[in-house]
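We examine the record.

___
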Amino acid sequence: MLNFPAHFAKQFHAKYADKAKLDQMVKDGGFASWKELFIAKVCQPDGGGFGQYNVAGRPPSTPG
């Protein structure tokens, strides 16, 4: 199951983010695409898909 806080994740997704801002974040981060940026900022690969995440600045998706 994937759990992403939408209010945080949308800033890194091409469908929701301002194109110019997203393109600048991709460039500044040295990523090849917005998808790479999204993975780096919202989740991190766990070798077999996407696991639970510990990315700096990412708010938790559950209370606690």
